[in-house]
What does this fold into?
Amino acid sequence: MNRRRSRTSGWVLLAAIVLLVAGIAVSWAGVPAHAAAQTGAAPAWMTKVSGIIDPALAGYLTKTMKRAADAGAAALVIEIDTPGGLDTAMRQIIQGELDSPIPVVVYVYPEGARAASAGVYILMGSDVAAMAPQTNLGAATPVALGGTMDDTMKAKVINDAAAYITALAKNHGRNAAWAEEAVRRSVSLPADQALAQSVVDFVEPDLPSLLTAMDGFVTQPKGLTLHTAGASVKEVEMGWGAKFLHAIANPDIAYILITLGMLGIIFEIATPGLGVAGIAGVIALLLGFYGLAVLPVNYVGIALIVLAMVLFVAEIKVQSHGILGIGGAVALVLGGLLLFNSSASYLKVGWPVLVIVAALVLAFFSLVVAKARGAMRRPQATGLASLVGARGLIISPLDPRGQVRVRGEIWRARTEGEVLLRNERIEVVRVEGLTLVVRRPAGPDTDPQTELTPEQ
It folds into this structure.
């Protein structure tokens, strides 16, 4: 029965996975969040993005640019707050900006937001660059991904990045000299100075003010004239599937998913059977692997995490008094430190996450695995011996012989002298050949498979 329950739980979980995948496919391009009252003029589309620039975000933005253009929007405003991100995703977004037939406005918003690293390039590639007060942009020096660069390679990468951002700034009529300095010297600017130095086109406190201010503005190099004063606003947002992929393409989330996946699989090893823990563990691992696929990975970090899993399994099988488990926890934390190969802080696992994971692992082994290991070491009854202690119902009176039903099967049974009536409950004392020796239950029922339905 326990196995049937495990299988049922597994099928329910697998069905949930299918629904999740279907939802991702349906919602990938985004869904309307809010639309202001429509007027005769074309509406301005607006969407909000935050966090690391990754493939999920890039795919969403490029699709949204196409949807806005197909709908004849007056402009697409992207409210952005980002520490930076991946080069390939950044270039995909910029290519979408350059190809868009409608104006693409990148607006660093709300107050306190920033457009750093890859965000600066995306801002420079937009048709209209805008910022809210008390925001900042800059520090666009490329970070090392996939290993430490030597001086020659670093110079090549910086020169390429400087040429790219300079061309973007020049073509859009912005301060190309400052854009180059942002790459070569990692300089930054607050909003008011960015406007004074012609790095951005507008500084406005909110979206309505921005739409009014940029009405009549002619973009470079496309030569598009904006007609946004009084335009209605149609807000769109990422679908929950795209949001989910964007969330797990985060070093902290990916590391947590991998850890939870490992613990689920280890628990399944400690308590054999097709159960929810094992299935959930595999799902968590696969989701964590998605994060590893889109982020810069250090193979030394992966090796340490694999070592941690080996030590955790050994802790279950070998009596080491916790030494192997502690060694696994140390390997897991070191693996998290080295897992992502980048000099950027936002592409590394944070110390708070490492501390929480270490505490979680130690608690797991002290509370869960210890009990599971104890259960594994208890002798297991098999065959007819497993019926000892089982509860059932009398089918025909025992005086002293008759029939009983135990775990869905009818058995010959006898008592040790007492007379028991039909539909009374019994407990198996021992098995003699194919006959069960039974008695009235001596205590509360602890058998999960007890038959409790009386015979009619």
